[in-house]
Design brief:
The complex is a heterotrimer of chains A (about 130), B (about 475) and C (about 450).
Chain A (H helix, E strand, L loop, with lengths): L7 E2 L4 E5 L5 E5 L1 H7 L2 E5 L6 E2 L4 E7 L3 E5 L4 E6 L2 H4 L3 H4 L8 E5 L2 H6 L3 H10 L1
Antiparallel strand pairs in A: 1-2, 2-3, 3-9, 4-6, 5-8, 6-7, 8-9
Chain B lengths: L27 H5 L16 H13 L21 H8 L14 H18 L3 E3 L5 H18 L8 E5 L5 H8 L3 E5 L9 H7 L4 E6 L12 H10 L3 E5 L12 H4 L3 E3 L20 E3 L11 E5 L2 E5 L16 H40 L13 E3 L7 H9 L7 E2 L9 E3 L7 H20 L1 H6 L11 H6 L15
Parallel strand pairs in B: 2-3, 2-4, 4-5, 5-6
Antiparallel strand pairs in B: 1-7, 6-7, 8-9, 10-12, 11-12
Chain C lengths: L7 H11 L28 H12 L8 E2 L12 H6 L2 H4 L11 H18 L3 E2 L6 H16 L3 E5 L4 H11 L5 E5 L15 E8 L9 H10 L3 E6 L10 H4 L3 E5 L15 E5 L12 E5 L5 E5 L6 H4 L12 H39 L13 E5 L4 H10 L3 E2 L1 E2 L9 E5 L6 H13 L12
Parallel strand pairs in C: 1-12, 3-4, 3-5, 5-6, 6-7
Antiparallel strand pairs in C: 2-8, 7-8, 9-10, 11-14, 13-14
The chains are: A alpha+beta (about 130), B alpha/beta (about 475), C alpha/beta (about 450).
């Protein structure tokens, strides 16, 4: 199960990556996609939506389960990965790259820094 | 092997089956208005009566059922559905809901007596037979609880419904539908509601506690009186999900345990057929302090006359049209009157006996029982280490037996929830054990065998991912070849 | 009677295996002070006595005689083959098809049902059926609220009064406002729309039997950004423009007229069919097509992640069961009748209703024929509707669904016809009406 060092993580299994322009790109971890199984549908937020850290922003459905995806940081949704509509399996195949879900322009820089690093996230998996 | 045809694929233009009364000459466009008529005829099957008979008879053969197969689905109470119930229901099937009530006194009397019977069985004070299913009865129950708190000026304050983490999915869904937040209460090591967590979760913001007893692990909540006391002291009402009533018929009553509201599933405890997914029926009963909120109609008796009482100003209203799923009320009434007081007590006795017998026998085979104590009408097991519940379930199908409920409750990993019911003989239970033994033996000899099961069924494992990713939800008619 | 098979020897063997001395011991977890309550029920009966008892109750009902009852339930002709096939043991005593390998019978029949409902309504996606027409309409109202995120629903007064009551029951706890669009005089006038309206719900034909201008109402709803919910009688769709043709987003209704007995109003089934775009907001079970590991076509419950057993408090609805068996009755029945037979049943009902209205006019009555009607229409009468209905019943005629006071039509009943109504039946009705003095005198007739 991979957990790239370059990313930040939430205990609820989202990863976050801060790009050069300051936007935070969000997806689900390799562990999460493996637990969910074959993803069949993704419900994404609208661009422009204002969010507070912890809000439910997306829903990922597999055949027998559905999982809420929470905003790891506060801000405004500036992009969503529309390609997932046609190919939801991308989340299984490429959770950290092509399977990203949405991008947020953060309103509070500190929240990103408070997220877990790869080691911290991996530790939460061991406990479970 | 060719695909089994759809009725639409058997269709041939111009072929027909039944002939209704022939309509007389009539200018339909003039009567209804050309603009109101449909421009394209619906594409419906055109088959002879024999084609139709073959089609649906062959479809029936592609289907497991209680009448043909042992069906020990936990929490579903798949017991034998007596044929006399069907005979009784037919006697009432031509009644129209808008008949003058004087011409429907038999039906109304039956409903009135059924209300009273269900009160006697559950220890409640009043019943409405209106809800069409268990979840529908739950909605009625939670809406009544809401109305009760509102009537006492506590509607705003009480925003939360407490639900054990092992509850049926309908409980939290119902609470949400009725406008409540859901708070889950964990299960403790004995498989019962964690009392300390319950005490911490209850408070002045809680409107109701939804429980089933025995719970979904098949265990009786031994501290039920304590739970009821704590809930009532906090001003919350206690809701009884009647899914598991079969376990306690005639032994202990929800009303006596302190429940304020109950719903029953007539298709579980009272043998109305499941019909492949419905119609069910979910009557709802209450203690006297909630009676005024019951959904309408409630059947009343004035003098010698039975009538539908709809003049109940504080009722939560209607949940469906007319009198509910009346046909099923006839079946349930027939069942209750067939068995009577003593017969109903025997139901719970033999249901619990059968379930415990199976639990012990499965343990002998190496199945794990996470809460290993005397259970009620059902129990939760896990397959031996290394086996997947799904694989064991699928392998059972090749033995002509329906699997148990799988992966429920959600709180037990690889859960297998088994409810044999009282109508099965020990020989049938032994045959189930033997089938499971063979499955385990086969799995040990050939680890890949289970992954491929079933082998002998009309179709084998399905691609459910494809079904969900590219939904095909109706037949696509072939395009006409000539474009006409 | 008893349905458990245990002999004393079985009981002994089971108890020994479990390691307890008696069945009673198995209940030791129950609170001692509450055990073995007095249950006030009569003793059991043998089958002969039981059937006598139930037959005595049934004999207190009277269903024979000319029949003009409607109001959402009509006693149409049902070919013998329909109940014979639909009520086979395998269909009646199966559970929900969660194990698709051994449930292809019900799953495929449901797929055929969904196709039939799409064809009849002209819309894209049908679920596997719901409880009844009224609760399906309420679920449609909730769907409109979810989809538009708006909090006002408009329902025409032409929607069956009980359906409106059910919609109100469902919307009340969520704080959604429910407004009524009035009739003027027999069909829906301009609804009071605004950009806060989630959905407009109109019944076709309406409760009184008359045809609404669905195209105009749909356009009005869409102009305000609301969903159009059409409550339809599925049998009428053999003749009438289907909801898909006039642009409705959701079709709901009660399927009783497609081959279910009246059964005192239940169980029949409700249906809901929607445009593809609404699929993700759609409540209830749905069957989809796929293949098995050998590549054979097979059917399975799909899109289950919307449902209560997975989403729990976040489900689209708490609905769990559908009305599988009664929906199957309709599927078989429509198969038996075929498109031509279904059309004949609808056409026969329309013809008979119009013949009845003409016969009443000829006899000096004034049925309301100011708007086009399908198989039901209103007859103003000279005495309270319930009294009239009882008086007719004493004369062996079943007729007269009361028109509630909210319609402002005075004493009036809805009369319905099916294709089974004979000329003699009509004469019997007219004679009975004459005998009880049902004719409103012109001087007191309103409107």
């Amino acid at each position: 199960m991979s957990t790239p060092e370059s990313l930040r993580y939430a205990a609820t299994h989202e990863w976050a990556r801060k790009d050069d322009d300051g936007t935070v790109v969000v997806g689900i971890t390799d562990f999460a996609q493996d637990q969910l199984g074959d993803v069949v549908f993704v419900e994404l937020p609208e661009v422009g939506r204002k969010v507070v850290k912890g809000d439910t922003l997306a829903v990922i459905e597999s055949v027998k389960t559905a999982s809420d995806i929470y905003a790891p940081v506060s801000g405004e949704v500036v992009a969503v990965n529309d390609a997932l509509d046609a190919k939801p399996e991308t989340i299984n195949e490429s959770p950290y790259e092509d399977g990203w879900l949405f991008a947020i322009a953060p309103s509070n820089e500190a929240e990103y820094d408070e997220l877990l690093d790869a080691q911290g996230y991996a530790a939460t998996l061991d406990e479970g | 092997m060719a695909d089994f045809p759809l009725i639409y694929e058997r269709s041939r233009p111009g072929r027909r089956g039944a002939q209704p009364p022939r309509p007389r000459e009539f200018d339909v466009a003039a009567a209804l208005g050309e603009e109101n008529l449909r421009t394209e005829a619906p594409r419906l099957p055109e088959v002879s009566e024999l084609d139709l008979v073959r089609h649906f008879t062959q479809l029936a053969h592609r289907q497991f059922s209680i009448d043909a197969n042992f069906y020990p689905l936990g929490s579903c109470t798949m017991k034998y559905n007596p044929k006399v119930n069907e005979e009784a229901a037919r006697l009432f099937q031509d009644l129209h809901p808008y008949q003058a009530p004087e011409t429907a006194q038999g039906a109304l009397q039956l409903m009135y007596e059924l209300q009273a019977d269900l009160c006697a069985i559950t220890g409640m004070d009043a019943f409405s037979l209106q809800p069409a299913a268990g979840a529908h009865g739950e909605l009625a129950g939670v809406l009544m609880i809401r109305a009760y708190h509102e009537s006492r000026g506590e509607g705003e304050q009480r925003r939360v419904v407490l639900v054990p983490d092992s509850a049926h999915g309908t409980n939290p869904a119902t609470a949400a539908m009725a406008g409540y937040e859901v708070r889950e209460v964990p299960t403790d090591a004995t498989g019962e509601v964690d009392l300390a967590a319950f005490q911490a979760a209850i408070g002045p913001d809680v409107a109701a506690v939804m429980l089933t007893n025995p719970n979904t692990l098949g265990l009786f909540e031994r501290r039920i009186l304590e739970l009821a006391r704590v809930a009532h002291e906090a001003g919350a009402l206690l809701y009884y999900d009647g899914a598991n009533l079969n376990a306690i018929l005639g032994r202990v009553r929800p009303g006596d345990m302190g429940f304020d509201v109950v719903h029953l599933n007539l298709h579980k405890t009272f043998t109305t057929p499941h019909g492949g997914g419905g119609p069910g029926t979910g009557p709802v009963g209450v203690k006297a302090h909630l009676a005024e909120f019951l959904p309408v109609p409630v059947i009343a008796k004035r003098g010698e006359e039975y009538l539908a009482d709809v003049d109940r100003p504080r009722s939560i209203g209607r949940l469906r049209s007319h009198f509910g799923n009346f046909g099923n009320l006839v079946r349930a009434y027939t069942y209750i009157r067939a068995l009577g007081r003593e017969g109903l007590r025997q139901v719970s006795g033999y249901a619990v006996l059968n379930a415990n017998y199976l639990r012990v026998r499965l343990k002998e085979l190496g199945f794990r029982v996470p809460f290993d104590r005397v259970n009620m009408h059902e129990f939760v097991a896990q397959p031996p280490e290394g086996l997947k519940t799904l694989d064991v379930a699928k392998a059972l199908l090749d033995h002509g037996m329906h699997p148990m409920t799988v992966y429920f409750p959600l709180t037990v990993k690889e859960a297998m929830m088994i409810e044999p019911t009282e109508t099965e003989s020990l020989e049938t239970l032994d045959a189930y054990v033997e089938a499971l033994r063979q499955v385990l033996e086969r799995a040990a000899a050939d680890p890949d065998y289970l992954k491929g099961a079933p082998y002998e069924t009309p179709v084998r494992r399905l691609d459910e991912v494809k079904a969900a990713r590219q939904p095909v939800l109706r037949y696509r008619f072939p395009e006409p070849a000539d474009g006409a | 009677m008893r349905y458990h098979p245990h002999t004393p020897e079985d009981e002994r063997r089971a108890l020994e295996t479990i390691g307890v001395g008696s069945i009673r011991e198995l209940f030791d977890d129950l609170p001692a002070e509450l055990r073995d309550p007095e249950v006030d029920l009569p003793p059991g009966m043998d089958e002969a006595a039981l059937l006598d008892h139930v037959r005595r109750l049934a004999a207190r009902n009277e269903t024979r005689g000319p029949d003009f009852l409607g109001g959402g339930v009509r006693r149409h002709f049902i070919p013998s083959v329909t109940p014979h096939l639909a009520l086979q043991s395998e269909f009646v005593t199966a559970y929900t098809p969660y194990q698709p390998e051994v449930s292809q019978g019900i799953l495929q029949a449901t797929f055929e049902y969904q196709t039939m409902m799409c064809e009849l309504t002209g819309l894209d996606v049908s679920n596997a059926s719901m409880y009844d027409g009224a609760s399906a309409a309420a679920e449609a109202a909730l769907l409109a609220v979810r989809h538009t995120r708006r909090e006002r629903v408009i329902v025409s007064r032409g929607v069956h009064p009980e359906t409106r009551e059910v919609i109100a029951t469902y919307l009340r706890p969520l704080g959604v406002r429910l407004d009524v669009a009035e009739l003027s005089p027999l069909t829906t006038a301009e609804p009071n729309l605004g950009d806060d309206v989630a959905g407009v719900i109109v019944q076709q034909p309406n409760f009184l039997g008359y045809l609404e201008d669905m195209r105009r109402l749909t356009d009005a709803a869409h102009a305000a950004g609301a969903l159009m919910v059409a409550v339809v009688d599925p049998l009428s769709l053999a003749l009438l423009a289907p909801p898909g043709e006039y642009g409705a987003d959701v079709a709901v209704g009660d399927g009783q007229t497609l081959g279910n007995p009246a059964s005192f109003g239940g169980p029949a089934f409700g249906f809901m069919v929607v445009r593809e775009e609404l699929l993700r907001q759609f409540p209830g079970r749905i069957v989809g097509e796929t293949t098995d590991v050998d590549g054979r076509r097979a059917f399975v419950l799909t899109l289950q992640a919307r449902e209560q057993h997975i989403r729990r408090s976040k489900a689209k609805s708490n609905i769990c069961t559908n009305h599988q068996l009664t929906a199957l009755m309709a599927t078989v029945n429509v198969g038996a009748l075929g498109p031509e037979g279904l059309r004949e049943v609808a056409l026969g009902s329309v013809e008979r209703a119009h013949a009845l209205a003409a016969r009443l006019e000829a006899a000096g009555y004034a049925p309301l024929t100011g708007a086009r009607f399908f198989a039901e229409f209103v007859l103003p009468v000279a005495l309270p509707a319930e009294e009239l209905r009882s008086a007719l019943a004493r004369r062996g005629v079943h007729a007269g669904v009361p028109v509630p006071a909210e319609y402002g039509l005075g004493d009036a009943v809805v009369l319905a016809a099916t294709e089974r109504v004979s000329d003699d039946d009509m004469e019997a009705l007219v004679a009975a009406l004459d005998e009880v003095g049902a004719q409103r005198r012109p001087a007191v007739a309103r409107g």
